[in-house]
Amino acid sequence: MDNGLVVLEDTESHRDLLREAGDYAAGTDAELFVLSLVSTDEVDQAVETLDAIRSVEDGSYRSDAILGAARNDAEEIADEVFADREGEDEHELAVTAVAAVYEDGGQADTILEAAAANDCDHVFIVGQNRSPTGKVLFGNVAQQVILNFEGYVTTTVE
User: Fold this and answer.
1) Spatial separation of the C-alpha atoms in residues 13 and 9, rounded to whole Å
2) 157 phi and psi, to 5 degrees?
3) Nearest Cα to 78, choosing from 99, 96, 100, 101?
4) Choosing a second label site near 89 at 20 to 30 A (CA), which of 10, 19, 102, 128?
5) For the segment 79-93, what is each residue's pLDDT rounded down to a tens digit?
6) Do residues 7 and 35 touch, judged by C-beta distance below 8 A?
């Protein structure tokens, strides 16, 4: 494995998958990228909030601060998940937190772009348990990644 990409949210299923991805990456001497996704709506809301704070504090904020906060959150979760790895005789685990903004319906494309940008040949993603009809009507990000990624995909269902 060259590199792995874990799509991360702060849920127990995501933490479990991150732990498994870390074990796999450590065993193959791969770098693990932990991806935090932020929707354009979340960015717009955060920018509005930051602009309101800026007007009160007379400070300066940019939309890059939102991605920085998302990276920090992913890094903190990874640190918590891998805290028990310290002192193990296994290979060193290299983890890098990354963040990306997606537009409505574009999560899978954003995940695929992040995997390509970080030279990943393995994606770890938590899927949603939906009926076949639900997948057709609402789509399924994990399914889109599985069908369009030209590497390995490990998935679990939340």
Assistant:
1) 9
2) -105, 135
3) 96
4) 10
5) 999 987 765 545 678
6) yes
